[in-house]
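[Q] Does anyone have a clean structure-token version of this?
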Amino acid sequence: MILLIACAAFIATALGGLFAIRFKDKLHLILGFSAGALIAVAFFDLIPEAIALGESFSSASNIMLVVGLGFVIYMLLDRCFFVQCHEEGHEHPEHRGSFGAGSLSVHSFLDGIAVGVAFQVSSTVGVIVATAVLVHDFSDGINTVSMILRHGGNRRQAIKWLLVDALAPVLGVLSTFLFTIPESFIGPVLALFGGFFMYIGASDLLPESHHNHPTRWTTFSTILGMATIAIAIHFAGA
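[A] Here you go.
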């Protein structure tokens, strides 16, 4: 099953990039939905699951500290690497696009690892996390293509980077066949990814979805994304 999800991640990323090329004016709605989905997975699944799994080894407050640490780690990675591609003083805009697309590919690789680790917990947790990651991969494909085209790249360069980004989550998933997370570490690892997802959703996708677009429909899309994941989690746990 996990191999099928890896293939689905590739397809979702590729479709997102092709969507970005074809429907530029609707991207804000997709990004809004993606933001809501990722935030919902963090709040309604990863963090509660991390607390439940970690209660035998650590307190809930310590697990929440790990969530905060995950948020900060991803923020530092984002600010130190990804934001550099937006610096006004850079001489070559196309290099900024490639740097940004490369950063998104690293994000996608981490998404793949999140799916593999979640399946080490249980199939239910794995499916829920995979659902959120597939939604995020779609938006990653969108962002990768947009990053290249926005900084002067051509269609061929956009498709090249889209292929790299589409392969990244597949490699991330496959890498988890090489290691197993000890039981005492599973809770903190899920908490760490919960912090990652909160940052990506709240600090990356959500602001981008509202940028230069009316907030009414993007806000609705975000709420719809949260509701969709909440319902999926409810029925998966029923």
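[Q] Thanks! Anything notable?
[A] Residues 93-121 form the longest helix (29 residues).
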